[in-house]
Amino acid sequence: MPDSPHRPTLTASPDGALEVPTLEAVVTLEGGRSLAAPLSLTPLVIGSSPECDLTLADARVSRRHCELVLTERGVMLKDLGSKNGTLIGDVRIVEAQLAPGKTATIGAASLVVREAGAPSILPLSTSTRFGDVVGSTLPMRVLFARLERAAVTQETILVLGESGTGKELIARGIHAASPRRDGPFMVFDCGALSPNLVEAELFGYVRGAFTGAHAARAGLLEQAEGGTLFLDEIGELPLDLQPKLLRALESRQVRRLGSSTYKGFDARVVAATHRDLAGRVAEGAFREDLYYRLAVVQVVVPPLRERREDIPLLVQRFLALQTPPLSLKDLPPGALEMLRSHHWPGNVRELRNTVARLVLFPDLGEQAILKRPAREGEGPRPLTALPLREAREMAVEQFERAYISEKLREHGGNVAQAADAMGVSRQLVYRLMERYGLQRGN
Ligand SMILES: Nc1ncnc2c1ncn2[C@@H]1O[C@H](COP(=O)(O)OP(=O)(O)OP(=O)(O)O)[C@@H](O)[C@H]1O
Asked: What sequence ranges are listed for the domain Sigma-54 factor interaction (predicted)?
């Protein structure tokens, strides 16, 4: 099929559906052989690693070299920090539009996008929110439509997306939109505890099951009876516990630690991770059978930089939550533009914190975005200007940042030792370091 003369983008039809052009990425290798893969709303990763969507056996191609994704702005090509770069013409790009017919170069291979059939139609939510999750861009409304349908069922849902994109908020939204809304909503971070504690926490134990088990205790699967259990960072679940969780999900029964009998439970599981779980399966770090069991419905939350048009709506929401409620006109001049143009590696969480800082310190300007420890004088007094929930979250963040920095310093930057001293897993420390922009030497 010939390349379309127009730029292929996503278009919403008046009846609330999204028309998605059917496109494929075609890579032509040095010897003339070509490989093709379909493009969708989720990124297509190209690289030399076998877990990529398109694998190129070329020494000049990095393991995860670049990715292509269909957006409202057209097909976007993004370099993933490759060693030898992704080029359009002679220009090494970080992120650029790849119009049909234009050629990009990766190692010795060329990459083009072409139409591969009639457009398909995806359901699109008519709402710009799902629970407390707000978003008006097309990928978010496609996501909301899937969530609306899946929430009312009993199916397990796997939520994928970078840190701070709102995965936990989505899980809360699923619970609130489900027939289980009057039951409990419980959260468990699979990477926060040491492996033996994870098992006791999830499955429970009988009295005397281990030293310190003075009384029997129900695990979270039982505690979430009639409600929803949100398993955050499921990718960190220790490998040896994975068959046990799979068995529990399939049989709807748990066996407490130290017990020989199984007991039924009635909790719906929503799991999330910021990791590429399929990649973890390929590496052997996550069991394939559990992955498929969890991903009965799989949704991907796009990073904020891929839906910048949502920024004003999100900012509006965070301002409206202030006491007294504020609006966009209360922001310092130029602030919205500055917020729109930032890259947001910490996604919506970083945006929310930046808005809170701008409200507290309107003179900060661009500095409001910088990740830095709180300055002298940015203590408890101004936090009272925020609503309780946000003030509490900011206080916790300030505390965690200072606490982790201090522990890392005490242990000469050794994450394993610092994690031991804090009584948490190494993965959690790495995650928090990433969240707060901390380095071992900070
Ligand atoms: N679309 C959204 N609308 C409104 N608030 C949002 C949205 N997305 C995220 N937030 C807010 O951003 C913050 C981070 O969201 P959340 O904790 O759900 O992210 P996450 O993806 O689970 O992060 P992590 O992977 O680090 O656990 C929360 O305060 C949440 O309320």
From this structure: 133-360
